[in-house]
Design goal:
By secondary structure, the protein is an alpha/beta fold. The protein is built from 5 helices and 4 strands; from the N terminus they run αβαβαβαβα. Helix 4 crosses helix 5.
Length: about 130
């Protein structure tokens, strides 16, 4: 495996699975790598700026391209996306994956579709009240 690239999730770092490869150089790919000091704080040898976040049109295009009738949302603004997908006629729901390392989404709990729709409506109403 010399001079090979192994792509693994951050949880693999320091694991017995990684130790099987002997001495290695590690890297981290994230949009956060564009911030000064991010590589050093992560404690990796290299950092690559690569965001794993999709834009709304790209995400909608990808969902449509699959032809799926049912979509389970696990990340991001779950209630908003579930509501929008339901309005588009899809069977959509949120699902708690318990990733545990999503700094961007702290405090956002995935909810069943009915609760997600209610939460999205409340957010929408709050936004309208704020604009008024």
């Amino acid at each position: 495996l010399k001079q090979s690239i192994i792509v693994a999730p951050p949880s693999a770092s320091g694991s017995p699975w990684m130790k099987r490869f002997g001495d290695y150089s590690d890297a981290f790919a994230s949009g956060w790598m564009q911030l000064r000091g991010a590589r050093r704080r992560r404690g990796v040898d290299r950092g690559f700026v690569l965001s794993d976040h999709a834009d709304w049109p790209g995400l909608m295009s990808a969902i449509a391209a699959t032809g799926a009738g049912r979509v389970i949302v696990t990340h991001g603004s779950i209630p908003v996306l579930v509501k929008w997908l339901c309005q588009q006629g899809l069977d959509a729901a949120g699902f708690d994956t318990e990733y545990g390392d999503d700094d961007d989404d702290v405090g956002i709990a995935p909810q069943p579709a009915a609760q997600a729709e209610q939460a999205a409506e409340q957010q929408e109403a709050a936004g309208e009240a704020h604009r008024a």
